[in-house]
Design goal:
The chain has 114 residues and is α+β, with helices and mostly antiparallel strands. It is built from 3 helices and 6 strands; from the N terminus they run βαββαββαβ.
């Protein structure tokens, strides 16, 4: 099941990850709509398709109330490929990455063992 949410905060992200769900922060493809997915594990092929890329980057959540709760999956070459800035993901998750900006579609998942 999927639910759409126009607003997302780090608190909502943490709560969603603790429920064993994932969050898709739509980039240019989904017009910045955030989708909660009832799934926490994805194959590489699924990640490529969901994010729309050929190479994914794994970024562990290490800052603030998201520390240790999951990870970010994004296009390794998003900035190089000139993907659109993902404003909603950057606002909520920017403190998790160097430079504070995320590009394209972003998937946030809890750790599979949780």
């Amino acid at each position: 099941m999927e639910t759409k949410d126009q607003t997302m905060t780090s608190v909502k992200v943490a709560e969603t990850l603790l429920e064993g769900k994932s969050i898709l922060f739509g980039g240019d493809k989904l017009a910045q709509i955030n989708v909660v997915l009832d799934k926490k594990e994805f194959s590489l092929e699924e990640l490529y398709k969901i994010i729309g890329c050929k190479m994914v980057e794994y970024v562990p959540l290490t800052v603030g109330n998201l520390n240790g709760k999951g990870c970010i999956w994004c296009d390794e070459e998003g900035m190089i490929n000139k993907s659109a800035i993902n404003k909603s993901a950057s606002e909520v998750l920017g403190n998790q990455v160097h430079g504070g900006v995320l590009f394209g579609t972003i998937l946030v998942t809890c750790h599979p063992e949780e």
